[in-house]
């Protein structure tokens, strides 16, 4: 007769292990769900990712600007060399034509031994005069030959230099295309993230940025219309020197004029690669502003970092000084007083004021 035993109950230890394992599985599932790349990001997550992509796009933009500037320089240099080669070749051709005409004339008149011509001549004085002329022509021919040889050597060197410039130009054009594709890719990715948000969420982000810009404008002592004048003070970390009137000590005349020019463009859209007058990227704005003051700056933020004297102490900055941000110096603006910068931030924004503390400050640059 079969026995009917009760099944063995799991021990307390085994129950505890099973419970812990189940809890861990639930936790891992939750983490996997939260890390799901297909999950819609929160507004703060989306903004953080968009800001990061825009920053990467700006890095690529400054590299694009540098490549474009180099391309324009190489195009001019190669064009000038090609013009010089063409002019040099024309000169060589003229010298050759001249030698050819003399050689043809001598062939037609024949070549007679000078001593025999003297014996046969009825007028030795006339012959001696002719011989003197022939000697002069020979000397001119020799000089022409020397000129041709010299010019041909110069032409060879210029052709080689022009070929090198054209090779550099082709390489630069390729780099330019790569940078352009990189910028467009980052911007497209950022737009995809923004499109994943609701209209209300996008409006909230835009409103927060507008409010921050208004506060920065108030701290800089100006309004959104771009009225000039930068009130100082050291409420924001002591940035900006102040005089007895409480207003920021102005920079040099050119720096002040550059800042005023930039203030007139508040509200102009950021467009990567643009240098004004209706749209700008960051270094495009600063170079345009200083151009209005009669000063030529380099095209990129990295190059502009060397366009004057560096100032590492924020308290020594004056309105109109350039301010460089990030370790690779890919962003630049104009110091506006009281710890604020006037700049073209990134795609999707306009020329506006912003607190310098929002970005990693590296140093200022006093131009001139």
Task: Explain the overall architecture.
By secondary structure, the protein is an alpha+beta fold. A hairpin with a 2-residue loop joins strand 3 (331-337) and strand 4. It contains eight helices and six strands. The chain has a six-stranded antiparallel β-sheet.
Question: How would the blueprint of this fold be written?
Answer:
Blueprint: H1 12-34, H2 43-109, H3 114-120, H4 124-195, H5 199-219, H6 253-263, H7 282-292, H8 301-304, E1 308-311, E2 322-325, E3 331-337, E4 340-343, E5 352-355, E6 361-367
Antiparallel strand pairs: 1-6, 2-3, 2-6, 3-4, 4-5
Give the proportion of residues in helices.
55-70%
Shape: elongated
Q: In angstroms, what separates the terminal alpha carbons? A: 110 Å
Mean pLDDT score? 77
Task: Report the strand count.
Answer: 6
Strand content: 5-15%
Biggest beta-sheet profile: 6 strands, antiparallel
* Structural class by secondary-structure content: alpha+beta
Contiguous runs where pLDDT drops below 50 for at least 5 residues: 1-5, 12-35, 115-120, 222-250
Strands of the biggest beta sheet: in what spatial order? Answer: 1-6-2-3-4-5
* Oligomeric status: single chain
Q: What is the radius of gyration?
A: 38 Å
Q: How are helices and strands ordered from N to C?
A: HHHHHHHHEEEEEE
Q: What's the tally of helices?
A: 8
Produce a short descriptive summary.
A hairpin with a 2-residue loop joins strand 3 (331-337) and strand 4 (340-343). By secondary structure, the protein is of the alpha+beta class.
């Amino acid at each position: 007769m079969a026995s009917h035993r009760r099944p063995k109950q799991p021990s307390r230890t085994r129950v505890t292990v099973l419970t812990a394992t189940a809890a861990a599985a639930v936790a891992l599932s939750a983490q996997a769900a939260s890390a799901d790349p297909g999950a819609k990001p929160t507004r703060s997550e989306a903004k953080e990712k968009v800001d990061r992509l825009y920053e990467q796009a700006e890095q690529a933009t400054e590299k694009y600007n540098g490549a474009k500037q180099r391309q324009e320089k190489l195009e001019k240099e190669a064009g000038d060399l090609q013009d010089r080669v063409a002019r040099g070749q024309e000169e060589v051709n003229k010298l050759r034509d001249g030698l050819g005409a003399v050689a043809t004339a001598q062939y037609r008149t024949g070549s007679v031994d000078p001593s025999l011509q003297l014996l046969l001549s009825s007028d030795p004085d006339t012959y001696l005069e002719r011989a003197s002329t022939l000697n002069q022509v020979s000397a001119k021919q020799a000089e022409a030959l020397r000129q041709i040889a010299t010019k041909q050597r110069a032409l060879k060197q210029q052709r080689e230099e022009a070929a090198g410039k054209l090779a550099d130009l082709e390489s630069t054009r390729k780099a330019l295309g790569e940078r352009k594709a990189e910028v467009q890719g980052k911007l497209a990715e950022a737009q995809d993230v923004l499109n994943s948000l609701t209209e209300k969420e996008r409006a909230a982000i835009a409103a927060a940025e507008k409010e921050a810009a208004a506060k920065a404008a108030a701290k800089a002592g100006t309004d959104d219309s771009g009225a000039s004048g930068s009130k100082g003070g050291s409420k924001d970390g002591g940035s900006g020197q102040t005089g007895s009137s409480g207003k920021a000590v102005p920079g040099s005349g050119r720096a002040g004029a550059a800042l005023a020019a930039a203030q007139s463009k508040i509200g102009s859209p950021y467009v990567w690669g643009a240098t004004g007058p209706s749209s700008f990227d960051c270094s495009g704005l600063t170079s345009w502003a200083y151009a209005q003051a009669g000063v030529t700056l380099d095209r990129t933020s990295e190059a502009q970092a060397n366009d004057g004297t560096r100032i590492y102490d924020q308290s020594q900055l004056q309105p109109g000084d350039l301010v460089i941000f990030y370790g690779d110096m890919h962003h630049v603006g104009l110091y506006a007083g009281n710890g604020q910068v006037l700049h073209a931030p990134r795609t999707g924004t306009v020329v506006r004021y912003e607190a310098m503390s929002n970005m990693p400050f590296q140093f200022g640059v006093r131009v001139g």
